[in-house]
Design goal:
The protein has one domain. It contains four helices and no strands. It is an all-alpha fold.
């Protein structure tokens, strides 16, 4: 049977193996597990308007876009549907 030295060795392995694995995988994570250009650059990301004039400009842009899409949708629906008196 094993002696005291074997028990000390096993205890050391039980303690140091998980610590070694955590140290190996826990260091230098940015270069090891990173995907280049995963996050968008700040100039390409959406920016929340904070100033009053920026908010007004953004609201105008959204309003114009909504009206454009509405006109486009109504134009497509109007061209596809026939008037009721012509259907009969």
């Amino acid at each position: 049977m094993g002696g005291l030295n074997l028990e000390v060795f096993k205890f050391g392995m039980y303690i140091m193996f998980p610590i070694g694995i955590m140290y190996y995988f826990g260091t230098n994570l940015d270069s090891r597990f990173s995907v280049p250009e995963f996050w968008p650059k700040p100039e390409n990301a959406n920016r929340i308007p904070l100033e009053r004039d920026e908010i007004e400009a953004e609201l105008q842009r959204l309003r114009a876009r909504r009206l454009y899409l509405r006109e486009k949708r109504l134009g497509e629906q109007g061209g596809q549907q026939q008037p009721r008196d012509q259907q009969e």
